[in-house]
């Protein structure tokens, strides 16, 4: 196994046709003075050779180019495997459409060191409204298998978390210890995008690790830059609804949550009725396809990093 490098943290950025966002993110990371870190940029099959353009602008980063778009889960796993092979003790997943405060990484690391948890998440604020919370971590209703976002749209100055222990951390930004990665395995790649962070967090907790909120670590998020683009049927594409529905059922199946099936079926049938009334037939088709594939697609065990 590779020896532990002097640089303790690997920061994984996945880029997919998001050059401007990724450039701004790397520039903000340039203001981070401690701890030392290495940026591993995984270009997920972007057009116009965006990975090479970013490497030319930031020669200090490590670049990995995927020929195809492997999704959030697959793209990050490529970077995580590389980091583990190099012996990094901590890996940070960071969305490319974020910018960070210079002290955020130190605060995340302190959270892990002081609390002994395997994962730490920062306070994430909206980039366009930096006084409003996008995420203060995740809660999990195990009876119905529903993930909720704590602090969603709450005023940052007034928010006081009831607990600093989270049920799940958002993949937008999460610092994960090497030990947790080796015990729990990597992101489950069949999810591609959406809910993969929830499933991963639940698996990390099942392996015996806790997840902490580093409330003094602050970052800013564009909130869905890759998925919120104008389409014929609104801002969010039908593909977003497909993954959301399909992956919700993946979660129910993996965790054997029986009461979740009727609960979420009713939710998604409500979505379908709304899309039918509004004439958004592509989104209706995406929801129905998500239900079908979520219930019947074969699921295989998640891979360990070395497989």
Tell me what you see in this structure.
It is a single chain. By secondary structure, this protein is α/β, with parallel strands linked by helices. It has 2 domains: 9-221, Spore Coat Polysaccharide Biosynthesis Protein SpsA, Chain A; 228-296, no CATH class. Helix content is 38%, strand content 23%. The protein has helices at 19-29, 50-57, 71-85, 104-115, 178-184, 196-206, 238-254, 260-278, 281-296, and strands at 9-15, 37-44, 62-66, 90-94, 98-100, 119-126, 133-135, 138-141, 146-149, 165-166, 173-177, 211-221, 228-231, 234-236. Helix 5 (178-184) packs across helix 6 (196-206) and helix 7 (238-254) packs antiparallel against helix 8. The longest helix has 19 residues, at 260-278. It starts with 8 loop residues before the first strand and ends in an 11-residue tail after the last helix. The mean pLDDT is 93.
Main beta sheet: 10 strands, mixed
> How far is the first residue's CA from the last residue's CA?
14 Å
Low-confidence stretches: none
The proportion of strand residues reads 15-25%
- Approximate helicity band: 25-40%
Series of H and E elements? EHEHEHEEHEEEEEEHHEEEHHH
Q: Quick summary of this structure?
A:
The protein has 307 residues and is α/β, with parallel strands linked by helices. It has helices spanning 19-29, 50-57, 71-85, 104-115, 178-184, 196-206, 238-254, 260-278, 281-296, and strands at residues 9-15, 37-44, 62-66, 90-94, 98-100, 119-126, 133-135, 138-141, 146-149, 165-166, 173-177, 211-221, 228-231, 234-236.
């Amino acid at each position: 196994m590779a020896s532990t490098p002097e640089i303790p943290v690997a920061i994984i950025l996945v880029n997919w046709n998001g050059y401007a966002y990724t450039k701004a993110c790397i520039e903000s990371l340039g203001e981070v003075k401690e701890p030392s870190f290495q940026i591993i940029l995984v270009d997920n099959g972007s057009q116009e050779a965006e990975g090479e353009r970013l490497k030319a602008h930031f020669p200090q980063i490590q670049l990995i180019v995927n020929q195809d778009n492997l999704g959030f889960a697959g793209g990050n796993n490529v970077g995580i495997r590389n980091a583990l092979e190099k012996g990094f003790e901590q890996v940070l997943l960071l969305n490319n459409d974020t910018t960070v405060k210079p002290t955020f990484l130190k605060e995340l690391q302190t959270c892990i060191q002081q609390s002994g948890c395997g994962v730490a998440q920062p306070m994430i604020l909206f980039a366009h409204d930096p006084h409003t919370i996008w995420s203060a971590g995740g809660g999990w209703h195990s009876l119905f298998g529903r993930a909720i976002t704590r602090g969603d749209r709450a005023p940052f100055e007034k928010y006081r978390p009831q607990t600093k222990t989270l049920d799940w951390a958002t993949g937008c930004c999460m610092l994960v210890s090497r030990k947790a990665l080796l015990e729990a395995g990597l992101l489950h790649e069949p999810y591609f995008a959406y809910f993969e962070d929830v499933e991963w967090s639940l698996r990390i907790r099942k392996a015996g690790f806790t997840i902490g909120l580093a409330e003094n670590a602050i970052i800013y998020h564009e909130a869905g830059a890759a998925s919120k683009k104008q389409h014929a049927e609104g801002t969010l594409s039908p593909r977003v609804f497909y993954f959301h529905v399909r992956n919700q059922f993946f979660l129910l199946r993996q965790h054997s949550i029986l009461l979740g099936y009727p609960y979420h079926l009713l939710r998604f049938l409500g979505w379908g009725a709304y899309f039918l009334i509004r004439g958004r037939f592509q989104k209706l088709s995406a929801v129905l396809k998500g239900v079908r594939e979520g219930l019947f697609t074969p699921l295989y065990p998640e891979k360990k990093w070395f497989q």
